[in-house]
Amino acid sequence: MRKNRNGPVGEVELMFHKETMKFVETGKTGYGE
Length: 33
Description:
With about 35 residues, this protein is mainly α. It contains 1 helix and no strands.
């Protein structure tokens, strides 16, 4: 984890991580796999 990255980039990474966790929870990637 890069703790030295904050601001807009950190926000985007956090949102992306949340989306990834959603995919992990459902066991699907949302692309029909």
